[in-house]
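Field log, afternoon session.

UNIT: design team B
ACTIVITY: writing a sequence onto a fixed backbone
BACKBONE:
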């Protein structure tokens, strides 16, 4: 159209056309700008929403974590009370209570099982019970056996040696009865305490 009119009249004034074109281009640019701004606002709102969702999730996780910690702490406290009660009743009616280190014979050498308070209690039907708990917060039982007069028992310096079926089992995959007799060694502070312990067991078998 412009070429045709210029050829007919080289002096034609095209200013109105250029003004209309400039106006049209400005409208297009304004429209694009509005669309871009709207998209930017939508994007920012989406980001803000994601941030809010993340904050809510973090708050929920923190609340859940605190709840779990509280439950674990409560359970640990209950377990501790149970252990304390169990340990406090071990030495009731005991013949002798003495700190001892427990070993068992494996091959040609002795292996340490742990250290704790050994309680020797007389059994009504005859014999004695030896109960030794580990010196830890869990108070794990290292030895819990019943001895009768037929159990081999000997004294060597500050050690008392005895032979019996292990309980708890030394091998977690085996039961008490499936394991053969084991030689245990109870080590105390000195020979005098060892003699006292040996006598307390032997005289009540």
């Amino acid at each position: 159209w412009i070429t045709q009119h210029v050829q007919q009249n080289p002096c034609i004034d095209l200013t109105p056309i250029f003004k209309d074109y400039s106006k049209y281009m400005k409208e297009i640019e304004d429209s694009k700008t509005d669309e871009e701004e709207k998209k930017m606002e939508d994007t920012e709102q989406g980001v803000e929403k994601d941030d809010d969702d993340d904050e809510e999730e973090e708050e929920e996780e923190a609340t859940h974590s605190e709840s779990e910690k509280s439950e674990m702490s409560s359970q640990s406290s209950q377990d501790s009370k149970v252990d304390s009660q169990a340990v406090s009743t071990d030495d009731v009616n005991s013949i002798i209570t003495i700190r001892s280190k427990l070993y068992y014979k494996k091959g040609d050498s002795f292996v340490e099982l742990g250290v704790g308070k050994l309680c020797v209690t007389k059994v009504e039907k005859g014999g004695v019970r030896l109960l030794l708990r580990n010196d830890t917060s869990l108070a794990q039982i290292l030895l819990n056996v019943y001895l009768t007069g037929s159990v081999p028992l000997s004294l060597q310096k500050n050690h008392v040696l005895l032979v019996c079926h292990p309980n708890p089992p030394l091998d977690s995959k085996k039961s008490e009865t499936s394991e053969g007799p084991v030689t245990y060694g109870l080590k105390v502070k000195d020979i005098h305490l060892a003699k006292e312990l040996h006598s307390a067991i032997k005289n009540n078998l």
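LOG NOTE: The mean pLDDT is 76.
NEXT ACTIVITY: expression trials, pending approval
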